[in-house]
Structures are given as C-alpha cells and as structure tokens.
Amino acid sequence: MWVFYTTEVNNKYVYLSSLPRSGSTLLSMLLGSHDNLFAAGEFILFGQALRASSSCTCGSTIYECDFWGTVIHKLNAKVPTRGQEQEAGRNFETLVYPFDFRKSLLQRSLIKLYSYSLIHRNRLLSEVAAIPEKGYPFRMKMAFQNTLAVLDQISCCFSDPETIFLDSSKTVTRLNQLYMQNPFQLKVIQLVRDGRGTVNSWLKSGSSSFTETVNSWRFHIKSHRRSLKKIKPENKIRVRYEDLCTNPVSELTRLCDFLQVSYQETMLRMEGPFHMLGGNPGTMENNRVIQLDNEWERMFTQDQLTLFDKLAGPLNKELGY
After folding, report:
1. What is the pTM of this model?
2. Using CA atoms, how far apart are residues 194 and 103, in angstroms rounded to an integer?
3. Cα 44 to Cα 186: distance, rounded to the nearest angstrom
4. Does the N terminus or the C terminus of the chain have fewer Cβ atoms within 10 A?
C-alpha cells in the first residue's frame, strides 16, 4: 500500500505498506526510476543504519552516500554508542522499528491502548499511551516526529518541490499513525501477492511450521484490511504483484495516473542509482529484471495446498487469487 499525505515539508510523501516478500522492493525500484519519484526503501531503518553504519543500495555506507550523507550532515544526526551520552544533534535512532521494548503487563496494555487510539483516531489516548519513555508507543510517537524532521531536510535535496518521496517501511502501525494525522489527504495503493507465494518465501527464511506461517500471513492480511477500510474508495487502488510482473506497463500507467504523474518508459529499466534502505537484496541484485516468482507452484505438496486453502483460502480469494 502506498500512502500519500501532505506534511509541513514541500515534498509529497508516499508510504508503502505491504507484507514482506510481496514485491515491495521491485515496486520501489520501478517507481523510484521515475524522474519525479525518490525511493528511500525502508525509511524506518534510518536510525538503525546510523548506529550500524549500514550500506545504502548505492554501495556506500549511509555516511558516505552522496544522498544520505548530505541529509545526515544537515541533521547533525549523531547516534551515541552504547553507554555514551549523545553530544550533539537529535537522536534519530527512534526511526528504527522498536522491537526491543519491554513486554511487561503494563507495556502490553499500553500497546493495546495505543493501537486502539490509532485505529479510532483518538489523539488523547495516543498521547497517554506514549508517556512511558521506554515503551513501544513512545518510540513510535518519536519515530513519527523524527520522520517529519528528516523529511524536512530531505526536501532541501530536491530542486523540484513536486518530487514524491517513497517510503516502503510497510508497517500497519505507521499506516494508522499517518491516517490519524491527516485522514482526508490519505491515498493508498495496496500491493498484494498470492498468499501461497508469500508463505513460501517466508518458509525459506524462517523456522516456523507451515501452519504457523499461514496463520501469520492471515493475521497480517486482516490487520491491513482493517486499516484500509477507513480509506475512501476513491483514495485507494489495488495492485497485484503478479500483474505488475506480467504486465508492468499497464500497472505502472495506472499507478502514475493515481499519483498524478506521467508514465515514463525509463521506469522499466530500473537504472538507478538507488539510495534505498533495507529491501530485498535478491531483487536488487537480479540485474534489474522484472521476473515473476511462482516457485510455490512446484514447492508445495498437495497436502500443503489443501491446508492453505482450508486456513486462508477465502481470504486469498478476496485478494483476487
């Protein structure tokens, strides 16, 4: 899903919220090849990249990258090493998705309260839930505030104020947060993939059983579906990964019309250079070729196909499969 909303910065901000291994890196590269679009990859990893001095997809570290290095310099973003105080600049580590919060009974209660406040657009409840500084809601609130601060500096890197910034962080919490901030200017492009393909990809990189993985896919799809229900029909569009691979010109033309930019043939070449954080390395290294991955068709046994259909078949059909 791509979320489009207006912030205080001059540039337009677009948010990609899809399930992992559903084609988000490919879509980011295709759209990021447009003259008026900039693909940042998983922008929520910016803080983690600062601490670890991670590499940008251009091949340089984030500090040495022509693009991110300039942004970091403008921000004076210094992340302290463990056990040290930050000397100067703002701590942008909170842009990283905060998995390391304490899971005490209080924190679990605050997480539920925070999620409820985002779903129902209750600013007061969200502020109450985000008071404890070591908790997940506090970090998500700070991550959103830091996002706006970074975007303010990123906007200075583009000469065209109409440049669209693409963020493929892909979290539902972030989507709900953006919706609460500005629900009437929210546009969404939903990127979906056949659940069997996503499950197959997850199985190769995880240790969960087939049943657990299918149930996890179903849970996350339902979470995205709940968030999308709030968006007006005219402000959302659905793109299937399979259609993007088999008929990219048609799908990209639809997306460009939706984003109010002209379609460009150069998008298909995905020439870059890209300055993306995170993403699927396999896609980036695949010689920039649009190639459909339907490996699940030969990998799944008949028993697995039957079980998937039993557990998630109806939901998969809702997505057009």
Report:
1. 0.83
2. 33
3. 19
4. C
Query: Among all chains, which residue has been given the structure tokens 């839930």?
Result: 129
The two tokens of residue 148 are: 């706006």
Comparing CA positions, the residue from 29, 24, 83, 78 lying closest to residue 51 is 78
Residue 97, classed as helix, strand or coil, is coil
Instruction: Pick 2-98+136-318's CATH classification: 1.10.10.60, 3.40.50.11270, 3.30.110.170, 3.40.50.300.
Output: 3.40.50.300
Interatomic CA distance for residues 315 and 149, integer angstroms: 38
Give the whole-angstrom CA distance, residue 46 versus residue 294.
Answer: 32
What lies within 8 Å, CB to CB, of 182 at 6+ separation is 5, 6
HSE on the CB side for 177, CA within 13 Å? 23
**For the chain, first and last CA: distance in Å?**
18
In whole angstroms, give the CA distance from residue 295 to residue 290: 15
For 123-162, the pLDDT digits (tens) are 888 888 888 877 778 877 777 777 777 777 777 777 777 8
For the chain, domain boundaries: 2-98+136-318
Torsion-angle region of 23 (φ positive above 0: left; ψ -120 to 50: alpha; else: beta): left
Strands of the sheet containing 164-167, edge to edge, are: 37-39, 164-167, 12-16, 2-5, 187-192, 236-240
Other beta carbons within 10 angstroms of residue 292's beta carbon come to 13
Q: Note the pLDDT of residue 31.
A: 94
pLDDT in tens, 267-276: 999 987 889 8
CA distances from 262 to 3, 259, 282 (A): 19, 9, 29
pLDDT tens figures, 301-312: 999 999 999 999
Q: What is the 3-state secondary structure (H, E, C) of 84-96?
A: CCCCCCCCHHHHC
